[in-house]
Each structure stands twice: as structure tokens, then as C-alpha cells.
Amino acid sequence: MTTTHDANTSLPTYDPVTLEVIRMRLDSIVEEMGIAMIRSSGSPVITEAGDFNTALFTPDGRIYSYSDYVQFHIGSGGVAVRNLVATIGDEQLQPGDAFICNDPHTSGSSHPPDTTVISPVFYKGQLIAWAQSQAHLVDVGGMTPGGFAPAALDCYSEAVRIPPGVKVFEAGTPVESTKRLLLNNVRVPVLYWNDVRSLVASNNTGIQRMLEAIDEFGLDTFHEYSELSFQLSEQVMRERIAKLPDGRWEAEEWTEHNGHDNDLYRVHCVMTKSGDQVTFDFTDSSDQTGGFVNCSYGALLGSVASAIVPILGWNVPFNEGVVAAFEVKTRRGSIVDPVPPAPISNGHLTTGARVSRVVTKLLNESCRLSEDEVIRNRTQGVWADSWTGGISSGNTDDGNYTVLFNMDGGAVGAGAQPESDGLDCAGMMTQVNNMLPDVEMNEMLYPVHYLWKRLSLPSGGHGRTRGGLGAEFAWTLRGAEEVVQTVFSPTAQVPADGFGGGLPGGGSGHEIWRGTNANSLIDEGVVPTETNLVSDERQLLDINHTGLTVHQSDVFVQWCAGGGGYGDPLLRSAATVAQDVRDRYITADAAHDVYGVGLDTDGNVDATATTELRSQMRAARIGTTPTRSVRDDLISGPVSPTRNGSFWECPSCAGNLGSADSWRDGCHARTSVAAESMEALGVRIRHRNNEIGTVHLEELYCPDCGTQLDARIKVEGITLSKIGTEQ
């Protein structure tokens, strides 16, 4: 993902109108491919949630254009095309051919359900491009319905593995032997084959529209301006990278529970920036593990790009030029670049999501030191980046077999921004254009009845601007006696960091309320709520769990993680806090205990009580009365310490934070068990109990004014020898 670059090389003379028309034509083609897939698929994962991508590639596998449905696939799509080219070599191709693949180890898929179909594009007998479509298919065989296999010990148990080079259509006609093999290995063959056909239809749409464009502009002009578009995108990305200070930063994140053991697995990255080049080195990440959290190389590349693009390439036309501006290094056999037989069916939503989080943290540290104000304002709270999964399978009362992969799991919160709260239910950074299914659609297609679906108040990270809230919901069975349930909640114990004093977000999780009166209430015309629901037991599920039975009398409950906050919560406008309480984004207790805002009996701000309360809270943080006052205009603006001559200066009071290499060395520090501290603030994360690896919250305060300048999650008590599970 790197190219040589000569900053002194001038671009050729070109017509900007033609350049933009061709670029936009390619973008519109991949968007229309997505529309074709939606209209021809029968799966709500595609039609309702948009869990797919479409793209066009050069004959050698560079990205012409990419639709923005699922950013994960930026990496996996390119790997799939390049590996297909390497596999088939000089094999004879013809219009109407289509190749299918899904194996993360050999074709780059994020996980086996993400199935790719690639079709050659010919113009006057010449191969000029590849059309690529990829979507999450509801079932791909293996030991667990839905393709997620927490109990798997190797990749052979997870799904039917399709390597590059398997032809599924030839000259426009299905390859019957391939079709028979695939349908013999999946649980819902009719739905599966219809979705494969929808991927082919998507590619056919792209091929037709691309050939029309080339007829209009001419092949030479198309090639010339496409290459120019690559150059321009790379140039803009490199110009922005050059505005970051040169240096070396490192950070880590932790993948939780591999499906077998409640261990923590390290995702470590060193970011090195020099001139207009940036490198991300994941070499020191944990060894691959025997559980399903290993992240394929394709998903790794997509996860890195998914963080870089919104932070540095927020308005850059996306093509190969964007990813050419950075390099990714790994170690084969690690959790971010595994080799067979490593299981991999949930690696993108666990370890891959941690990759996006760690890259965000690294770019935050670099951007905050930039001399460019625009780049400095690209800092943010870390996104929850956690797909909270629930898959239900079984027979309905009508005798039909059903598999519900509930796409509500993407309803996680975004990180807070410098001037605005994070988006609620924003999705993962790698899947920002996923959609949540309508309650009515899920109830129509599957034997479930929702009791509630709402924002989860204990999920958002507090701060001057708040992290986005995740969702929580509950359903009971209507139309089936029982289903078998698989769950995974990747951000349960190690939540997303805030930035600049903003607090971490909350975690995710599941419960089954056993033996409830839910259906009796429904039959009586009473809406079940947490108040009137009675249950025999509330069973907190493991972070990863499979083979659970949900009965008709049970209620399944899920909550999704929230994003990290931005800036000290005591800097949030008191009037805004009061409005948050009225709007039910936070509780009155949080207003008092976290934001230091006193409210009168009508819910309005008590200015005197607020001033006194915030003064007391700042003094309590540093154990003494502050010697400097916080500026009055800090409801917006910088939250990062800056150099003032030889010393670091607090952004809140201009106090001296010392002259060490890091301003953190001059702060007053407090460390606590994260789950306990966050629970006291009304934020829910899971205790690790007596497991190896304590999750701590480290809070750093200005010793002069008591402003919270940083709040970081740190994992302690794990040595390198205890990281990961060697195979």
C-alpha cells in the first residue's frame, strides 16, 4: 500500500472538468451497482442493513472507485482481486465470467460470510477492469448457523472455504458443479444462491455502465484521467500527512475473549511519520490465537484505511491514491495477520475494530501537535467500534428454518468531536453507512417481537462534548417455541478512550431473562417494560457464547457500546447539561456527579451551586485548592497542552506542566479500576473479576487548576508471555 513519490514532479496539463466528470461517473457506477444488489437480493442483511460493498479495479488490482457502504472491505476487496489475478495467471477469460471467494486466509475476506464475486470487464476484447461486489451472506456453512463460530478451534470448522479462482458463472451461465457444491454446504440454499446472483447482477450493472462511459470518453482518455485521479488523491493525502510533525508514536488496544478463554490479546502499533509518508507497524501484536478473533490481512488493511480516511482524507476522492500514501507492516502468524489453521470468523469485528481504535489514538496524538489548525481539529474521542452480535436460528411454528443475524448490533456510538457530540448509533468507523433494520421488518421476517429499542444512557463517554450513545433492545419469541442463540460483545471490558480529558465510553453485553411474563402481558394488551416484567433469572451471558437456547418465555436483552468523550466534562456548558437532562441523554445524577451542574426543582441551572460544586470537584481531583482559575471561554477551543518556550502549558489556565518530553509527566495522576470508577459515573463496563489483566482508568489533571487533561484506559498485569495463545 505504498508507492514512491517525488514532490518535485509536476502534474501534466489536464482539463479539470473532464477529470471530475470521469471520476464522478466511476463513483456513480459503483453506487448503481449497490442499488442493483439491493433490488435483487432477498436478504435483509443487504436490503435493510447495507452490509456490502461494490467497487471497480484496474486489471492489476488498483481501486478505480469504491462505494462507501462498508469501509472494512477497502482492504479485502483489493486483496481478493490481486490474489485472483495471481491465481488464474494467463487463464482464458471471457465476458460473463464470474469468480467467487470467501476465504479470509487466501482471498482477504474479513470473515467467511463476506463473500466476493469478481467479474472481468472487457472492451473490444481487452481486459480493462474488474467489477467486484462483496456482501455478508446469512449462512456459509460450518459448525454454527450464521457463520460466526465462537467455539471453533480452526478455520476448517467455520465455513465452506472458497479460495480465489473458483468460477461460479461462465459466459453468463451458472457453473452447475460449483453451484451444487456450495448449496450442499449451507443451511439456507435458496437465500444463499439468490444473494450470489445479486452479486453477479451488481457486477453486470457495473460492467454495462463502465463500457458506456468508455464509449463516451474513449479508452485512452479514460485511462489517462483515471491515472491522474490516482495522482491527485495521493498528492492531497501526502500534503496533509506532511502537516503532521515527524516522529514516532506507539499505542495499544486489547481484544477480549477469543471464544474459549477470557484472555486479553494485544493489538499494538507503532506509527512513524517522516515527511509525507506514514507507516503503521503492527509487528508486536499478539500471536494468533486458537479462537475466532484473528483478523485477516484484508480486514487489517481496511481497518487502517477506515480510520485514516475520515481523519486525514475526509474530502479526498477515494481511489488507489488514498491508500498509496501510507504503509502497513505486520508479522505473519500474529493476531492481525494470521495463517491457517487460525479461526477468523469474528476477527474483523473484534481485532479489526481494535485496529481502527489504535490508529485513531495514534493520529490523535500526532494531530494534536500539528501547527495546522484544521489538522489539530481532526482529533476526536475514540469510536466504540464494536459490533455487538446476536444470531438466532431454529424452526418456526410453521416448520421453516430461519437464521436471524440481527443487524441492530451495529448501533454503537461514535467518538465525540471537538465542537459536537458524537453521533448516537453511528455504526463502526469501518461501517458508517450501515443501516439499522426496522423493527417491523425484523418482526415480519423472523419469529421475534420487540419489547423496546432505545438509546442506552450508560453507554456514552462523558466530556465537554459527549461520546455517542449506543442502542439497547429486547425481544421475545412470537412464532417459534425456541431458538439457538450465538452472541458476541467485543467491547465489554475494555471500552473506547476519550480524548483531551473526555472519559471512556460504556461497553456492550447481553442477558437472557429466563421465565418471564412477557407473552402473558402482550396477550393481555399490556406493553412489557422493565418495571412490569417478572423473570425467574437474569442470566448475564459470556462475552462470546454459542449454543444457548432462548425459549418462548424468555426475553433476550442486548446493549451496545458508546463512544469516548472529548474534553473535561466540567468544561461543558451548564445550560447544555441541563438540556441533556431534559432530553434524557444523561441523568440528573450524572449532571451533578460528572458535570458538576446543580439543578433546581424545575430542572434549571442553579448558577451558584454549579460554581461551588465544580470548584469542589477540581479541588478533590488534585487534593488541594487550585492555585489558578480556569478560563471562562473554554466551552470550545483547544484541549491539548502546548509548548511555551521550554515548558508545557495547560490549555485551561496556562499553568506550567513541566519541561519533560511529555506533558503527562507534569500532571497529577489518579489510577483506579475502570469498571468501578465508570460505574460510579453511571457508565456500564464489565468487571474482569479475577481474570488476568486489570483494566484501569488513568486520569491526568493539571496540578494548578484541576482540569482533567487526559483519561486513558490501561491494561496492567499481563506480560508478553501471557499475551495470546500460540498454536
Keywords:
single chain; 727 residues; alpha+beta; 7-stranded antiparallel beta sheet; 5-stranded antiparallel beta sheet; 17 helices; disordered N terminus; disordered C terminus
Structural description of this entry:
This protein has 17 helices and 25 strands. With 727 residues, it is an alpha+beta fold. The chain has a seven-stranded antiparallel sheet with strand order 2-1-5-4-3-6-7, with helices on both faces. Strand 1 and strand 2 form a beta hairpin. Helix 1 packs across helix 7. The chain is globular. The two termini are 29 Å apart.
State the end-to-end distance: 29 Å
Name the overall outline: globular
Helix content: 25-40%
Main sheet summary: 7 strands, antiparallel
State the strand order across the main sheet.
2-1-5-4-3-6-7
Counting helices, strands and paired strands, the structural category is alpha+beta
Count helical runs.
Answer: 17
Would you identify the regions where 5 or more consecutive residues have pLDDT less than 50?
A: 1-8, 721-727
Q: How many whole angstroms does the radius of gyration measure?
A: 26 Å
Strand content: 15-25%
DSSP E strands, number? 25
Mean pLDDT across residues: 94
